[in-house]
Specification:
Blueprint: H1 3-22, H2 33-37, E1 49-53, E2 56-60, E3 63-64, E4 68-69, E5 72-74, E6 83-84, H3 86-101, E7 107-109, E8 132-136, H4 147-152, H5 173-183, E9 188-193, H6 195-205, H7 212-215, E10 218-220, E11 227-232, H8 255-258, H9 291-297, H10 315-320
Parallel strand pairs: 5-7, 9-10
Antiparallel strand pairs: 1-2, 3-6, 4-5, 8-11, 9-11
Length: 348
């Protein structure tokens, strides 16, 4: 072992001691799962394995998207959500390279997943099993962004002000090519986009049935006017991964899209005066697949660099240098949920 590696290992062991001390209190049945998964800093070193559904699960063997690459930059680094199934990270890097060939300057990569997946302290309901990723519709600048810029820079909405429709001054053919490229991959199950973006894609590509297979994957949904959300199929080696229903056939440029431009999907829900307000549901570890308990207790790599998906990534080395880590218990459920992503129905 090199002196640099021994130094990294020593730092990590010190972190383990600190985490163990903080975990003095046992996990109670009422502890919110987001408090447990949201504070884990590193993944397990087990083989990649997604447990459960996209919005109720966890992942073993996640790897990190490097902060920077020749054709991408990761955003919101303070969230520690650059982690995903190796197939997810591999696909994002491939998309970044091929999108540049199509004329896109490079990807700004948003949230993927937490180191061990699971519910997040804020934001997404999904992104829990390492198979979801957000890509900004803002082109990558021709310089390296600072950490502060990545934390505070706002993504650009593609919509005209106070409208459901895309602003032609913001939308370019390169945006369309980027979505086409992303949807063309066989590994991609669906892509969430704003209804207005789906419409402009239908206007551009919907006349040819040759485009139906990938156009069908573009699914209109609330939010997603400043980023798009890629979702991969369950991967081999994940027997407990629960797949999402098929997107069906056709290109989605039909009555189902027209519905989004009526008042119905945007009308606030009418309150029932006779119904008592329901208490917010606290998702606990018991609500997740049983295997997620083991995921929380799984061994961690000695250093983040060992599980960052680069050309030199070696899962065997990460496992050989793994360190036992006691899962950190966080009492209560005191962290407020910020804006859900994807956005909820307005008024709910």
């Amino acid at each position: 072992m090199t002196l640099a590696f021994i130094s990294r290992l020593a730092r990590h062991l010190a972190l383990v001691v600190i985490m163990s001390a903080m975990a003095a209190a046992p996990v109670s049945a009422e502890t919110a799962a987001k408090q447990l998964f949201g504070r884990v800093q590193l993944p397990t070193v087990d083989a990649p394995d997604s447990h459960g559904f996209y919005s109720k699960g966890c992942i073993d063997g996640a790897v990190a998207m490097p902060v920077d690459g020749p054709t991408w930059q990761a955003m919101r680094l303070e969230r520690n959500r650059r982690w995903g199934h190796p197939k997810t990270i591999e696909l994002l890097q491939r998309l970044s390279r091929e999108a540049v060939q199509d004329g896109w300057p490079g990807l700004l990569v948003g949230d993927i997943s937490q180191p061990r997946g699971g519910p997040m302290l804020s934001g997404h309901a999904s992104h829990q099993i390492g198979l979801d990723a957000d890509i900004w519709l803002t082109p990558m600048p021709n310089r390296i962004l600072t950490r502060t810029e990545r934390a505070n820079m706002s993504a650009i909405s593609m919509l005209s002000k106070d409208s459901l429709y895309v602003d032609p001054k913001k939308w370019t053919p390169a945006h369309g090519k980027l979505l086409k490229r992303a949807a063309s991959y066989d590994e991609v199950q669906r892509i969430f986009i704003h209804p207005g973006i789906k419409k402009v894609m239908c206007d551009t590509y919907g006349s040819s049935h040759a485009n139906d297979k990938w156009m069908n994957k573009l699914r209109p949904y609330y939010g997603h006017h400043y980023h798009f959300h890629i979702r991969l199929f369950c991967q081999d080696g994940s027997p407990d991964c629960k797949p999402q229903q098929s997107t069906g056939s056709g290109n989605g440029c039909d009555k189902s899209l027209a519905w989004w431009f009526t008042d119905e999907p945007w009308a606030p829900a009418k309150p029932d005066p006779n119904k008592k307000p329901a208490k917010p549901k606290v998702v606990t570890l018991a609500d997740l697949p049983k295997s997620c308990s083991s995921t929380l207790q799984g061994k961690a790599p000695a250093d983040e660099s060992l599980v960052t998906f680069t050309a030199g990534y070696d899962p065997g080395l990460a496992r050989a240098t793994a360190v036992p880590v006691r899962a950190m218990a966080a009492p209560g459920n005191r962290v407020p949920i910020i804006v859900p992503i994807p956005a909820r129905k307005p008024g709910n």
